[in-house]
Every structure is written in structure tokens, then in C-alpha cells.
Amino acid sequence: MPIPIDRALVTGAAGFIGFHLCRRLLREGVSVTGIDNLNEYYDPSLKQARLDRLTALERFSFHRLDLQDRDAMEKLFARDRFDVVVNLAAQAGVRYSLENPHAYVDANLVGFTNVLEGCRHGKVGHLLFASSSSVYGANTEMPFSVHHNVDHPVSLYAASKKANELMAHAYSHLYAIPCTGLRFFTVYGPWGRPDMALFLFVRAICEDRPIRVFNHGRMKRDFTYIDDIVEGVFRVMGRPPEPDPAWNSRSPDPGTSYASYRIYNIGNNQPVSLSRFIETIEAALGKTAQKQYLDMQPGDVPETYADVDDLVRDVGFRPDTPLEEGIGQFVRWYRSYYGV
Q1: Model confidence band, residue 284 (pLDDT cutoffs 50, 70, 90)
Q2: Active-site option among 41, 42, 157, 261
Q3: Predicted local distance difference test score (pLDDT) of residue 1
Q4: DSSP 290-322
Q5: What is the mean pLDDT of residues 285-313?
Q6: What CA–CA distance (Å, rounded) separates 321 from 283?
């Protein structure tokens, strides 16, 4: 059953998805508390610019704190009451997890434990948390379904996100916290992350530098526009999961549970080759990229492709923003923000 949402906590509010979700919630009349540690994984000035736009809006309050700070998190949940918590704060990036694995344990495991404990003691009505398409790991059956087994991650980042799903299920079972995991598929759009392909490619092409094309452009990704991600999250927020009456312990469904727990994919459901992605960027910029072709990097997967049937059935939404439209929106934002 849908629940009313008056107050929401969004972790990672100064991040790419967090920023857009906060703006949507504020437009819908929800009072939003945002937290973020504004770390230096990528340009903090971009995070601050997002935050400046949020703090100028009514019904938004911000606390600079780290999910790993147990005392601060306990005080936050003791002071404020939230109908819904959306955990988007995390150490992101597949490739960076090869260089700095401890950052993923600290943020994605220790930090998420503090979120779960806050929801437990704060009697939160619904916890949503960001998972990732990377959890599908070595799976090759397409499209990726939440009902598939995902026990073979190929990066520590993916393993940490799979761990979040397991941790949330345990808390749902133990403390009756309704928990929904959201597996996002290659999110892109205005205000995006500088470490992701679209931002890297546009910046390099504008600066007449070569772009690195991994797996010789043969990789495929289910590129999903930010507005579609936010729409999916917003629709799920007000619908806490209920136990699945058809769940069978002899043949357990990974996507549902006897507990109040659910997993959804949010993806565009239309995988696109990296080569076509680059061609679309070139068309939007009116400029040809210099390309440096490379082998696939450790931790990467050759293809992602989201089965979103459960999302469509439960909340009536299917992401469908065309790539040309989404990349065009990003390029217009990039040129305006950086004065290119």
C-alpha cells in the first residue's frame, strides 16, 4: 500500500543522483534532509555547486557528515524522524575499487550498517538503497533479471553492493524494516559524475584530447537518463515492499522475500554499444573524437541489459529517454556550466 511521504532523508545529497532526487522531492512538497561528506573522489566544487542550488530551496536542510561517523548518524536519527530514507551515498566506481579497496569497506559496508541501525531505531517506514547493475558480475544471461542469482561479482565495488542487498534483507527479516534495493544501470545526464564515460569523453573531445575506448568499442551498456532514474525512485518510495506470498524457501527467488524486501532494476532496457555512444556524442558536439582503442579493463563486464518488467508491473514506469535526447541535454549543460 502507498504511504504518505512528508519527510525524507537522502544520503549522498550532493552527488549526481542525490541532487536530482532532492530537487524532485522538493518540487513534490516533501521536506528533505540531505547529508553528504563532500569527499574528493571527484571535483568537490561540482558537489558544492549542486549543494548550493539545493540549499537555496525551501524545505531543504543539509548536514555535512560521513556515514561512517557512528555517533553523528545516531544523533541524526535521534533528532529527526523520517518517513523514508534513500541511501545514495557510497564509494562509487569499479576501477577505483582496484586501487583503494578499503574505501569501499568503510563507506559501503560500515556506512551502510549505520544507515540500517538508524532506520531500525528511528522506526523508518521505508528504506531504499542504491545497488548497481555491476552485481550481475559474471552472469551472461540477458536481459539481467532481479530473479537471477548474482553470487559471482567481478569487482569489490560490485561485491559491496551485493553485500548491501544481503544486509538489508537481514534487517528486514530481523526488525521488519521495509527495504527496497535499486539496481541502477549506467546513469548519465546533466550534473553527472566527472569519472564516468560521458563526462570524460565530452571533456576530452572539447579539449582536443584522445578518448580511451575500452574493449575496442564493443562493450554494451544500458545507458539510463537521470530523469528516468529519479522517476523510478520516486514511484518506488511511496510503496514499501510487502512479503511475497508466493516465495518458496525450497526454491528461493532472489528478487523477493517472505520479508518486506524487494529488488528492482532501473535501466533503459535498450543496450547500446560504446561505439554508437561515442558517435552520438560526436553528433551532439559537432566534432569527431580522437580514439585510443584499448582492451577491456579488469572488473568491467562486456554488456549490461536491464529486465524492468517488475518495475513496470509494480509502479507502472518504464525508462525510455532516447540516447540522443539525453546526451544532447548533457552537452547543453556542460557547455553552459563550463562556458565551452
Answers
A1: very high
A2: 157
A3: 58
A4: PEEEEPPPTT--SB--B--HHHHHHH-------
A5: 90
A6: 17
